Amino acid sequence: METKTALAGDRGEGGGRFRDRSEPAADPWSSVGDPARTLSDTTIDELRRAFDGALLRPGDDGYEDARRVWNGMVDRRPALIARCVGAADVVAALRTARDEGLEVSVRGGGHSIVGHAVTQGGVMIDLSLMRGVHVDPIRRRAWVQGGTLLRDVDRECALAGLVTTGGGVSHTGVGGLTLGGGYGYLARLYGLACDNLAAVEVVTASGELLRASPNENPDLFWAVRGGGGNFGVVTGFDFRLHPLPAGVLSVDLAFGVDDGLRALRGLVEVAAEAPEELVGSATIFTARPGGAMPEEQIGRPVVLVSYTYAGDPDAGRIHARRLRAAGTPLVEFDDVYSYRDLQRLGDESQRPGMRRYWKSHYVSAMTDGFLEAFLLRGTADPGAGNPGCSGSLFQLGGAIGRVGPDETAFSGRDAAFDFLSSADWEDAAEDAERLAAGRRYARAIEPYSTGRAYANGLEAETSPSVASAYGEATYRRLVAVKDRYDPDNVFHLNQNIAPSRTQATP
Ligand code: FAD
User: Which residue puts its alpha carbon closest to atom 7 of ligand 1?
Assistant: First the structure.
């Protein structure tokens, strides 16, 4: 039997080729920094007196690697990369950037889809040397540094038989993921990553080191749970932990597109009745050679309906019956993984360096109209499909929906699924068309969305805007917190909450 790892490769794109080629769209999300800016030796020497990590300027060993991020389209050159080893380094680097009038970017795991971790010509505050995790098994808490990757947390917590919610690819950063919300295979059971925060330690724009928790700076604590990196550099996260499931059942059934609607309806039914251990998902993609799909399916659309079940596998398997009713699956997988292995299944297909596009919309009404639009991928003919991009759905609800909409800044409490339009490719000559295909698909889904979107899957330049992605009331509250902690918008390389003083007056 094929393994699910092969399937993970299938879901990536790269097989489709466009007939027409146009010029690459050079870094469509570029930062506003000045690429010509440099820092003098005197400034660097002064900074070095207060800074224990590594300071890299263009031409230094390690600079080229350190400026690279997950999305291969992002090709920016900071004037300085400040590789911090602790909060004191963050304060020192921030002060230098502000004194020199340089743009600031903050790098956690470097997985922002649009490359927010890298400034062009400014100072990159790089947290990737800050990956310490300390687990307290008695209190069931983990203290996690700001540049930690999900895999670091999973590894250290598993030693104590514990876990907290992360995303589904182990090389993603805890920082950006948690600050935007953070959903994954355990989110319906244990809540979002941000719902598991007991406290954070933040370096604010003024260089102050603050704690935020329900009792300390509660406005800041509210905002960092969903509001992204807008309010400061989070140098430490205090997470609540839960029992690690003994294993996680993973079920996938692949169908041809003719059975697609029935398969998706089946998934919606399973999801509606699902216990919180179960997380449903669906993907539509074009099968490519070397994956797990049968030969005759190569180049044709495949609809994959899937779920994971973090509990007794036999209890979880019952739900597959409803999915099988859609027709004869092209292939079917039923595997039980350790949680850590499940987290690593997508690591290779989601490897850094490819050129990528992602765009999210929250969906709550899973109507046939929506499911048909999902299958069409922004084109008129589901059979031909759109090899330029794929679509996916990831189930939310459960423990996520039990947190009130105004308890945190996360805006997807009422969503049934997060939809994602995505594309990945290698040839820069395909940039313009791949971006256009991904955007077209996302636009076709927008009328079916709740009107809001996951901040971490948002392309700020296109609809919905950051304000609509959060909804009016939440956005207004976020602006008030921004006004208090970052009135000059020092931290603007993110899904930006513009402070009042920088907003245009009508
Ligand atoms: P970075 O690019 O380093 O940072 C992203 C943003 O957060 C930037 O604005 C940055 O300045 C800010 N930031 C990062 N760390 C800090 C910090 N410590 N303090 C202040 N600001 C900070 N999301 C999910 O919810 N679930 C998933 O399963 C999931 N899977 C993903 C898989 C892949 C392969 C990728 C690329 C993304 C995935 N995402 C998922 C989306 C992910 O949550 C975002 O891309 C997130 O921004 C990544 O965080 P990062 O720290 O790696 O990125």
Answer: 176
